[in-house]
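Saturday, quiet lab. Running sequence design on the structure tokens for the scaffold JK sent over.
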């Protein structure tokens, strides 16, 4: 039975800009009514957090360039960790490893300077050796080579797998926020997407400085106890990125530790007696208002609902601000409509792997700015 007519099982691997850890999803794609729209069945999902030392090494690779040997060792070590996460997810799914058609790995973005260059760690050969399965990786580079931003790449899944009956916006709030606008019924034509700015990256970084025992603002409690400083958010939103028209993408290269330190200093200078909670609330307000600003400037479509996923969707303080700022649009949790929203990006990259195996384009040129549709990823045999 050819890949065009039988279900395919892929593992999607994601290490995002939040630097929390690895997400691994085992997905069975069952042929649907259209060749390019399979029905995804999430068979297993595991998350393997990074220990503090490894997370610090990843962050340092971005903020403080070091010797090439450090980069290459980190590349292979991350590949081993990605492979281990894939093996754990396959074991949980109950699918024999030999029945997994491929592992699709996003890896971890170390540098993104689109449309000139992009670089993801997570050596695919190491994943192939660990899993014994073919690996599809390095998804962003072909789009960048074609003049695109190489991001966002999730829109193809949003357009073909997660559409609704009306215009829908799907907002991922990981380390960086990105939104996809999908027409009624879905489809690539009419779909647009871009990075809205900081997701939880600035929020988490602030919390880790202020509360060394916390990796993030658990249940949004710190933000809920604080009062945002509007003037600081106003000033932050004057950065040229927020006024630049799509297609556009950003990353940790903009929202660096130096950016976070300056943000915190501005909060303290703007308010006498500024509390830690006020700084966290201001970081939440920056994310929420950057998303609203994206709607005001760049989303003229009559969007009926905003579907949120990613770590920010678990922050009640952030979700409440989005509900207030985006009314009367409904703000809905991805979990309530599909499956665990934390698995969404890993499933999306499994889908990009499926598209690669089928020979279908994985980019949406209207979203990335590439010269045309391209099959994404490089293939490493088992």
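Result came back. Writing it out in full:
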């Amino acid at each position: 039975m050819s890949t065009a007519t039988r279900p395919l099982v892929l593992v999607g691997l994601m290490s995002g800009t939040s630097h929390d850890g690895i997400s691994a999803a085992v997905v069975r794609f069952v042929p649907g009514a259209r060749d390019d729209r399979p029905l995804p069945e999430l068979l297993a999902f595991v998350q393997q957090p990074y220990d503090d030392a490894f997370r610090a090494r990843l962050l340092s690779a971005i903020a403080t360039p070091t010797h090439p040997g450090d980069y290459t060792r980190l590349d292979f070590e991350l590949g081993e960790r990605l492979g281990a996460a894939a093996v754990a997810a396959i074991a949980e799914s109950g699918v024999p490893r030999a029945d997994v058609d491929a592992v699709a790995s996003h890896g971890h973005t170390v540098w993104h300077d689109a449309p000139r260059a992009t670089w993801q760690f997570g050596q695919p050969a190491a994943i192939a050796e660990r899993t014994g399965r073919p690996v599809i990786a390095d998804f962003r580079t072909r789009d960048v080579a074609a003049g695109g931003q190489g991001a966002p790449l999730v829109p193809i899944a949003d357009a073909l797998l997660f559409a609704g009956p009306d215009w829908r916006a799907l907002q991922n709030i990981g380390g960086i926020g990105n939104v996809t606008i999908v027409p009624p019924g879905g489809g690539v034509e009419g779909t647009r997407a871009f990075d809205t700015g900081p997701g939880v990256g600035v929020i988490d970084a602030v919390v880790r400085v202020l509360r060394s025992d916390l990796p993030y603002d658990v249940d949004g409690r710190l933000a809920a106890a604080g009062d945002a400083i509007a003037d600081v958010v106003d000033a932050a939103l004057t950065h040229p990125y927020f006024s630049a028209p799509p297609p556009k993408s950003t990353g940790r290269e903009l929202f660096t530790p130096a950016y976070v330190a300056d943000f915190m200093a501005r909060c303290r200078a703007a308010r006498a007696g500024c509390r830690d909670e006020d700084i966290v609330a201001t970081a939440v307000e920056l994310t929420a208002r950057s998303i609203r600003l994206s709607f005001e400037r760049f989303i003229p479509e009559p969007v009926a609902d905003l579907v949120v996923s990613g770590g920010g969707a678990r922050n009640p303080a952030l979700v409440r601000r989005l509900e207030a700022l985006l009314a009367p649009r409904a703000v809905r949790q991805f979990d309530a409509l599909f499956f665990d929203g934390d698995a969404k990006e890993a499933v999306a990259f499994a889908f990009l792997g499926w598209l690669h195996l089928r020979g279908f384009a994985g980019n949406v040129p209207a979203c990335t700015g590439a010269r045309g549709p391209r099959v994404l990823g490089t293939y490493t045999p088992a």
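Notes for JK: The mean pLDDT is 94. The chain has two domains: 8-153+341-380, 163-337. Ask whether to fix the surface positions before the next round.
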